[in-house]
Amino acid sequence: MKTNSIFAVVLSLLAVPLAFADAKAEPILDGIVKVENDQSKQKSETIATLEHRPTSSRYAVHGLVQYRDVEGTAYLEMWNIMPDGSRYFSRTLGWYGPTRKIQGNSGWRKFELPFNLMQSKPESVTLEINVVMPGKGTIEVSELTVSDSYSNEWFDGSTAGWIGGLVGSAVGLYGALFGCLAGFLVPRGKGRSLLIAMVALGFAVGIALLLVGIFAVFSGQPYHVWYGFMLIGGLLVFILPLAFSTIGKQYEQFEQRRMQALDV
To answer: Under a CB-based contact definition with an 8 Å cutoff, are residues 96 and 170 in contact?
Structure first.
């Protein structure tokens, strides 16, 4: 059985740099910027452009937004332009929190446009902030700032490391227990119900972790929040059925040998 070694991969994959530093917010613009669209066709307008010198791998633009009579799904957009000319965007198209989409009417509320540089470490990044509207409506933006932190995180990078380590260790121990039991019981043709129950439990936990990870992505959570949920959940959902399929074949082989012995 390779179950133990496979589950051990969880621990190594969780060893991802999750330490992030916070910085004070820097103002981008003062006052209120209003964008109006009086036609039923898309309109995109740039409201701010700046050079940002990130001090960590993550940063976000924060501010306030209010809107009225917005047709369809509008959003705020941040283009992150790297020194080599490559461009990456963040958009407020989430379902909840400060990254949620712009629809209909709303008074002043907070918004956030987060971005993670991952392994890239440029000295400066050009940020272009746009308002994108698919049809008619009015959107106002105020108090734009940029900082090397996210405001809507479920937990920070340091906490993510602890959670990932604890959950990864628990999954690794569960995999080791499953592998040891399978190695002892399967050759004897015993414990099939127990192993099925363990697979079912692990699969259910994997599905739950995947759902949490997907919810975190759609809620606009940063990489270090959803990564562990998606990784561990995906591994459990993928590996456990494969492991039990192999065990099932071994149980069938045991049963065939038993029947042959009875025939003799």
So the answer is: no
Answer for the pair 59, 115: CB distance below 8 angstroms, yes or no.
Answer: yes
pLDDT single digits (tens) 34-53: 999 999 899 999 999 999 99
Residue 54 amino acid letter: P
| Domain co-membership, 105 together with 183 | no
Beta-bridge partner residues of 11? none
What is the reported pTM?
A: 0.51
Contacts of 74 (CB under 8 A, 6+ apart): 67, 101, 102, 103, 131, 132, 133, 134, 137, 139
CA distance 190 to 251: 9
Total tally of structural domains belonging to the chain? 2
8 A C-beta contact, residue 115 and residue 60: yes
Q: Which residue has tokens 């452009």?
A: 49
Distance CA 19, CA 148 (A): 12
Tell me the mean pLDDT in the region 173-187: 79
Last-in-domain residue among 100, 118, 147: 147
d(CA 80, CA 95): 22
Beta-bridge mates of residue 114: 60
